[in-house]
Amino acid sequence: MTRRKLLIGNWKMFKTATEARAFAADLNTESGAAQASVDLAVCPPFTAISALVEALPESVKVGAQNVYFEEQGAFTGEISPAMLVDAGVTLAIVGHSERRTLFGETDAAVGQKAVAAVKHGLTPVICVGENLAERDANQTAEVVARQTRAAIAGLSAEQVAASVVAYEPVWAIGSGRTPEPGDAEAVIDGIRKVISEDKGSTAADAVRILYGGSVKPENIAAFGAQPNIDGALVGGASLDASSFARMATALAGGN
Ligand code: PGA
């Protein structure tokens, strides 16, 4: 199974719509980025989604950083899958560690969000990862297995195959620290085995699993070279168009 490489930028709470338009203009002038032989996506804040959908080339997809699992209703501050689809969004991050730790998102809610996203044709980007205490206690495999199982519980094998998982060790996010690429590979291989147990080997072979946490132009190729790592989910280094373009090129094997 050949899985196409995927680079996703997660802007978190950075950039206004005006700043997003400037990013798109800069990215369009970066030769190679949009044409790279990898799939590209950017997840801006909700308020910049429309600007990016208009300004980015068709080849760069626009994603959301979160989505709610209800269709509609009295859920102040939440955004439904249908609203995202209508805005031109094609993928949605679910279960990012900042949502889990700062906003109390549970494993069960992440599973509900994945189901709601898929139901509306959005690709869920399911984030899993251990924190430092869990890593120090040798619980990494157990934690990511639990999070993965809960996130995919309501999805069929075909739906899992078309989804994306991002392994993001919490201690690596925004810290400048990363695991060795071989260590991330081992955890991701374990995630694939869990998916195989629950949903079968076809789904496990097809699902794209990314690494995330302090990825930058200088280290992305080493992660992407691992057989089970299909790309990266990038925060800080995705905010600059030139940096994003360099990561796309590096992931494509350009340098
Ligand atoms: P970082 O964030 O690349 O800034 O470490 C990654 C993420 O949180 O998705």
Entry summary:
It contains twelve helices and eight strands.
Write the layout of secondary structure elements.
Elements: E1 6-10, H1 17-29, E2 39-43, H2 49-55, E3 60-64, H3 81-86, E4 91-94, H4 97-103, H5 107-119, E5 123-128, H6 132-136, H7 140-152, H8 157-161, E6 164-167, H9 181-199, H10 201-206, E7 208-212, H11 220-224, E8 231-234, H12 241-251
Helix pairs in contact: 1-2, 1-12, 5-7, 7-9
The structure holds 2-phosphoglycolic acid (PGA).
Walk me through this protein's architecture.
There is one protein chain. By secondary structure, this protein is α/β, with parallel strands linked by helices. The chain has a single domain, classed as Aldolase class I (TIM Barrel, Alpha-Beta Barrel), CATH 3.20.20.70. 43% of the residues lie in helices and 15% in strands. The protein has an 8-stranded parallel β-barrel, surrounded by 5 helices. Helix 1 runs parallel beside helix 2, helix 1 crosses helix 12 and helix 5 packs across helix 7. The chain starts with 5 loop residues before the first strand and ends with a helix. The mean pLDDT is 96. 2-phosphoglycolic acid (PGA) binds next to strand 8. 2-phosphoglycolic acid binds next to strand 8.
